[in-house]
Amino acid sequence: MALPWLQRVELVFFATAFLCGAVAAAALTRTQVRLRDGAGRRAGISARGETRTCEAPLKLFVFYNYRLFPDPSGHSLQGSFSGSCPLYGVAALNGSSLALSRPSAPSLCYFVAGASGLLALYCLLLLLFWVYSSCIEDCHRGPTGLRIALAISAIAIFLVLVSACILRFGTSSLCKSIISLNITSCSDAQKTPWIPPGTTLQFYSNLHNAETSSWVNLVLWCVVLVLQVVQWKSEATPYRPLERGDPVWSSETDALVGSRLSHS
To answer: Which of 18, 70, 84, 152 could form a disulfide with 103 if both were Cys (CB 3.0 to 4.6 A apart)?
Structure first.
């Protein structure tokens, strides 16, 4: 069964929203989580196979991200704050090196990355479901399903808006603390040694990519909501051609016949 053209356009936007959400979650997670060479420790797993409840899922996500897309420079990770959240953080000079002296609570970054990742997963599953339904089964989204989709889209817009604002103002706050240390910009701070020593930090590039992806994701979800509202309106008031016996048909016919008789 072929899907309505509005729903097909909606699925295209869902596919793009999946990519934006995945990029935002991966970029922020790569900035926060620190990976090292060594299979178990890279994912936050101890020698006994134990994992830390909050950090392990995100570290596993980044671990497999680098397994699939390794860094061409050979580094295990481009951006790292050893599990600390740099958003709204305060940087300080330690000799000739920079250090994140006052990081934010890790739950702040977990919220942004988790919201982006879950919405990306929802887009992917929904896309696969409707592609399968249109090819194999005779499935149609009824009024109830459309109302549920509208509610989920409204919640998604709220979550993406909050995440984008956190990334925007959190990155700005961190950059202000860096610039106050007589450093030209956050881009230049990426070339400065950081403590603890490790791979070259690309924190600003990752945070900028996450923020840009979140704003684009917000626009996509707004377009999806508009498309769903249009479909809901069209199903609520379906078009029906006039037939003989309808009051509107009779009134229009009488008007036309009456005007012709008056002219004759």
So the answer is: 84
